[in-house]
Amino acid sequence: MKQIRRALLSVTDKSGVVDLALALQQHGAELVSTGGTARALREAGLTVLDISDLTGFPEMLDGRVKTLHPKVHGGILHVRTNPEHQEAVAAHDIQPIDMVVVNLYAFEATLRKPGVRFAEMIENIDIGGPSMVRSAAKNFEDVAVVTAPSDYAALIEELRANEGKLSRATRWRLAQKAFALTAAYDLSIANALEVLPALPAEDAPVALPNPEDQPFPATLRLSYPQVMPLRYGENPHQHAALYTDGSGTGIAGLRQLQGKELSYNNLVDMDACWELAQEFSEPAVAIIKHTNPCGAATGSSILEAYHKALASDPVSAFGAVIGINREVDGEAAAEIAKLFVEAIVAPAFSAQAKKIFAAKKNLRLVEVLPCETARELKQISGGLLMQDVDHGRIEADEMQIVSKRRPTQDEIDALLFAWRVCKHVKSNAIVYARNGQTLGIGAGQMSRVDAAKFGAMKAVLPLAGCVAASDAFFPFPDGLETVIAAGATAVIQPGGSVRDAEVIAAADRLNAAMVFTGMRHFRH
């Protein structure tokens, strides 16, 4: 255990710092502080030594230089058990500093300010703070470094329990967090500066490009803190954990309301069904099994959308994960509760819905905030792939009608629905649909003809008069002929095959309407 006799406090986020300082002072620690932090502590009635009185040197250069001084870093970094270090600090009248309480200039918050100027962005790159944090973390054997207000309460309790002392284990844990903080801080600065389109004038507003327009970085720098370890990965012999980008949005930022702990497979499936449900502005439900939809539908209400999605493939829906793009009300909850599912993800659940689902103790209920993700990563052996997220979509006026027969308005609506669902089905993918409802889904087949046959085979509801979507072009007429033979009267596909003319001729021969999108939706 190490006694805290002197603490240096210099924080941007002052929440809770008075309580921590009070606990330190009650156990005999001298408080040393800077600028606004010192003022806040004095206003709370605490006795504080200004950093300039410790160093014998005034704060200068608009506060840029105040803690960058041997009496600060010597006080932090000297090893208490090293006789030479002790002689050196004594010779130069350097007082030991046993705790450093620092959080950093809010660089990312400054960057998000509308119209922020380049000079202000640069000014909010902290220098003294990270230097003190790293010094204290390196010398954790003698010094406690505190970088997060969320740690204050536990530290206050430990100080009280041990009469102003902190354990080695606590100092080590704090040091680990400190190095993670400085690493993430430098990473955010490097990433922001790298994507600036050009060197701005000093007084020019910082114009960062939209995430989707940013160039791919020359060096990919990642910092994702762990949210929680998972029981295991895809299979019991694989270890796994969940990490977050820190935004608190999307599946990684979920809030679990009830149910068993989440598994790796739950999270992967929840991400798939959440992304599919978000494709639609009207009430939508996606039922996912092994990342592929076994049913998806829109409706005038969540209840109607759920009934339609379930009817698409009620057998496969057993043990599935359900994604919903609206608050789940009691009426919908009462119906969904009749089916065994692993998890339900939605932006919210009404009080009545929560009460209904509470009877199913193992059912995982998860609330998620929407997020806009611009890029996605995939690991391959020896490296990573990065690409833009597939946000591509088309509207009715962007369809290229290539057949002699024009699709009816009902067919157009169904084609647009099928096209949005098809984007979320593993390739090769064929989706049969009608009236905002999937009817049969052929997913992940090695042949497009097989995908068409499999989707038709999976159909429970009649396919006569439906439409079909293909995630990529038909290389030969046989795939198109298969979906039309199954009952489709209109087809949406990207086009672009060297045999497009033959495929169009087949559509005309069979009196089918066909539209090209000029956009492919492979999903591997």
Task: Characterise this structure.
- The protein folds into 3 domains: 2-194, Methylglyoxal synthase-like domain (Rossmann fold), CATH 3.40.50; 256-367, 3-Layer(aba) Sandwich (Cytidine Deaminase, domain 2), CATH 3.40.140.20; 399-516, Cytidine Deaminase, domain 2 (3-Layer(aba) Sandwich), CATH 3.40.140.20.
- Helices cover 35% and strands 20% of the residues.
- It is elongated and about 100 Å long.
Helix content: 25-40%
Give the name of the CATH superfamily of the largest domain: Methylglyoxal synthase-like domain
Residue stretches low in confidence (pLDDT < 50, at least 5 long) are none
- Structural class estimated from helices and strands: alpha/beta
Instruction: Give the CATH topology of the largest domain.
Output: Rossmann fold
> If you average the pLDDT, what whole number results?
90
Shape: elongated
* Major β-sheet strand ordering: 10-15-14-13-11-12
Tell me the number of strands: 23
Please tell me the total number of domains. 3
Task: Give the terminus-to-terminus CA distance.
Answer: 54 Å
- In CATH's first tier, which class of the largest domain applies? Alpha Beta
**Beta-strand proportion:** 15-25%
